[in-house]
Design goal:
2 copies of one chain form a homodimer. In chain A, helix 1 runs antiparallel to helix 2, helix 1 runs parallel beside helix 9 and helix 2 runs antiparallel to helix 6. Chain A has 210 residues and is mainly α. The model of chain A has no long low-confidence stretch (mean pLDDT 87). Helices cover 86% and strands 0% of the residues of chain A.
């Protein structure tokens, strides 16, 4: 959503510096929103699917290894307990108990040797959908002032005010969830948006002047 | 990089459907590249910094808890070993050995209770820089044909050919690294780009027709 706010906002800002008609800004903005939401939403969905394929192929491989080279796999379990700082004796006992149940053993290898958590297909689908929708909602916000003003610069001013406030609010609540300073987080996200828009505006102006 | 290829490509495609001058497509494209590279690069960098702050605040909290409520923290270590399927006896021994060294104990809690790996500040900086640069490089590719052709539709045709080939190559090698079918992965990434561009083009055409 933060990208969805920032990129269309900065693009519209850039175009405001180069063209007079807000019509074109709206066309470019909506094209960008369509492109961004599909690239991120669909891209995220397919990345999730790839992750599931990857997990399943690794799972199959671990099952085979546990059958074919159990001694080497036991060594790997032992290494894990050794790294935790457990004594030789406890390592040994833990390995013996751990490797009794092959399914549990394989789960353990997946999680702690390979660092892979079982991906959730349903959640991946939902998350991709949310990303796509957030990008659209986020993108409509900075673009909306251009619908009401014929002049690009006026649209830009209103868009900047609305978008920077939204970015601050977004950054504020996101930071509160992750447990960092909310005001600092809000200012950070706002600053990125402002810098991106200023750069896009400057670049568009420079090219237009050529 | 995949987003860097896809979004500017689709945006340019959309504008090709609505405007005649490639000049404007180039301005919008470069503004989008500036905005996207800053939003993603700087955004990624600040997200990395936030992650480090979050890690450090959790680390401090775990150190305090180990001092103040060691019994509860020991229970949590024991739960971890119980979940692995170890016997009551081995759980007990493991907890006793594990919690002798307080630093190791806290490291263990960070990693296995909270699932947090120590973030690497240098790597976060480098990765953000790479994301920003990749977005710029990726964006220049689909935009380049518009520099050489005055007609948007001709530019779009060349851009589509170049970009879809690049997306396929990119998807191919990325899939090879993650160990999934390379051709399938290449086609997937290519398809996302094509769908995003087609949608952007259609939307721009529809609005232009209003």
């Amino acid at each position: 959503m933060s990208d969805g706010l920032t990129v269309p906002f900065a693009l519209a800002a850039g175009l405001s510096g180069a063209v007079d008609s807000t019509n074109l800004i709206i066309i470019a903005g909506l094209a960008e929103i369509a492109a961004g939401s599909i690239a991120m939403g669909l891209g995220g969905y397919l990345a999730g699917k790839t992750e599931i394929d990857h997990y399943n192929s690794e799972l199959k491989r671990e099952h085979e290894e546990v059958e074919l080279v159990p001694q080497r796999e036991k060594e790997e379990v032992k290494d894990f307990f050794a790294n935790l700082g457990l004594s030789e004796e406890v390592q040994h006992q833990a390995v013996n108990e751990m490797t009794k149940d092959k399914d549990k053993w394989v789960d353990f290898m997946m999680k702690y040797e390979l660092g892979l958590d079982k991906p959730d297909e349903k959640r991946a689908r939902k998350s991709a959908f949310n990303i796509g929708i957030s990008y659209i909602v986020g993108g409509i916000i900075p673009l909306s002032p251009y619908f009401f003003f014929k002049d690009g610069i006026t649209g830009l001013k209103i868009s900047a005010i609305i978008t920077l406030i939204c970015l601050f609010i977004f950054g504020y609540f996101k930071s509160r969830i992750t447990g960092v300073s909310p005001v600092g987080g809000g200012l950070r996200v706002m600053l990125i948006g402002a810098i991106a828009a200023a750069c896009a505006f400057t670049i568009a102006r420079l090219i237009e002047g050529l």
